[in-house]
Design brief:
Helix 5 runs antiparallel to helix 6 and helix 13 packs antiparallel against helix 14. The chain has 15 helices and no strands. The chain has one domain: Na+/H+ antiporter like fold.
Length: 326
């Protein structure tokens, strides 16, 4: 799970770039498939959302509140500052990075949370909270940043977002009911992450195949993007650890807090951005670049947190280990 997404996305970038460079006519033909791929990806990303997640979030308000504050009152402003600090002078790239930083992950971070020994039930409960907040935050980002750089009016953007958010959400709801009625929920859950990853890889391939010339022209911002992402990850690790202790969260919940603060919702933001802000390949490329850096970071972080948890259990007094603190 942890190595496959990175390898698959790197392969999609390579194949897309090669296609765009060696056969530009073929590459440009993939432009016509992007909208359909975006729609399918959005449906796949909305499918895991259930009312049970929201009920669990309400039951554990201390963790939910701590995660919300960390993600949206700390991570989002910090990300905007880092994007400005590293990419000021590259407006499209800066917007892409602001969008990437602003949205906490709603899917694959749960796998890394489980690997780290974190509280996966609490992590899953964040899905509707994170999704609703970032859907409200996304138009604000466009209003303050993207409008000037892309020339898209807020009214046109709001109409586009309503169509591309509401319709896939409705389709996902219908599919979820059908899957439940057919008693195939467990089987589908085993495959849904893989299907979503495959669709994401297809979208990345289409982006690079159709827009390689424009993306190559901005290759100089890649080191700056990676530097900003590295500073963000290190900062959020320290902040989430300190905030988790200050909130007196149990060890497993502190681990879940660290993972949600470290993982960003690049697939959803990429899809929404492409739908709402068409013909902005630099913005898309920056989001993809940041996403690629995220996978090895989450892998190392999950293993580090799991080792720390194991060491803490091994060194704790017998009574404390049996008390359920960990």
């Amino acid at each position: 799970m942890t190595a496959t997404p990175l390898a698959l996305l790197l392969s999609a970038i390579t194949l897309g770039a090669v296609t765009g460079i060696t056969a530009p006519t073929v590459g440009s033909a993939f432009e016509d498939l992007i909208d359909l791929t975006i729609f399918v990806l959005l449906v796949m990303l909305f499918l895991p959302l259930t009312s049970e997640h929201l009920r669990h979030a309400v039951r554990n308000l201390r963790f939910t509140s701590a995660a919300w504050v960390t993600n949206f009152l700390i991570a989002a402003p910090l990300g905007a500052f880092l994007a400005w600090a590293f990419l000021n002078g590259h407006p499209a790239a800066m917007i892409g990075l602001i969008i990437y930083f602003a949205a906490p992950c709603t899917d694959w971070y749960l796998a890394f949370t489980k690997l780290a020994g974190g509280a996966t039930a609490e992590g899953a409960a964040l899905i509707p909270v994170n999704l609703a907040t970032q859907a409200l935050l996304f138009p604000v980002i466009v209003w303050f940043a993207a409008d000037e750089a892309t020339g898209m009016t807020l009214g046109a953007f709001a109409e586009t977002l309503a169509i591309w958010f509401a319709l896939p959400l409705a389709v996902a709801g219908v599919l979820r009911v059908a899957i439940t009625f057919a008693k195939r929920t467990a089987a589908f859950q085993l495959q849904s992450d893989r299907l979503a990853l495959a669709v994401l890889a297809l979208l990345v391939f289409e982006i690079f195949a159709a827009h390689t010339p424009a993306i190559v022209e901005t290759a100089s911002v890649v080191p700056l993007t990676l530097a900003a992402v590295a500073v963000f990850f290190l900062s959020m690790l320290a902040i989430s650890e300190a905030f988790g202790r200050a909130a007196h969260l149990p060890q497993a919940e502190r681990t879940a807090l660290t993972m949600t603060a470290s993982a960003r919702n690049a697939p959803l933001m990429l899809a929404l951005t492409m739908a709402a802000l068409p013909d902005q390949p630099v913005i898309y490329a920056v989001i993809v670049t940041a996403m690629l850096a995220e996978f090895p970071h989450l892998t190392l972080l999950a293993h580090g947190l799991r080792r720390r948890r194991r060491d803490a259990v091994c060194t704790a007094p017998r009574a404390e280990v049996g008390s359920g603190s960990y």
